[in-house]
Amino acid sequence: MSSPEKTIHTYHCICTQLVLATTTPLPSLKTRTSDSSHILPLPSLSSTSPTSHYASLANTIIDAKPTVIRLEDGFEKRYFHKCGRCELSVAYSLDKSQFDDTKSSSGAREDVAFLIPGGLVDTEDMKRGKDMDAEIAKVGVKAT
């Protein structure tokens, strides 16, 4: 028995590089209260249980060393995911040492990423923007 097809939502860096494909649209994801980033669950390589959500960050480079961020209630180690084309930070992962179940470990957690607000553009919105640019060019209107 085959599973029903899911719609794949794609998102690009503001430089137009494809960086995210997911079955869950961004507005449907929960957000962190500290910085309004979207919480993106990532598939576990060791999990064999089926899930209704799938996501993949593509064309990104994750920092090898964490950046320590000072927060009102302490510090946080973040590994930034940067666009492979323009190196804009589009997401981050937290350090394993910040969680009770992995306190003795270090390195980026691989089961969740936090998408930075304003860094991603929906493919459809990007297409509409390009179409609008083409229409503006046809009529000879200059942007101010």
From TrEMBL:
Stretches assigned to the STEEP1 domain: 3-128
GO CC aspect terms: cytoplasm
Any one Gene Ontology BP term: endoplasmic reticulum to Golgi vesicle-mediated transport
Family: Belongs to the STEEP1 family.
Name used for this protein in its record: STEEP1 domain-containing protein
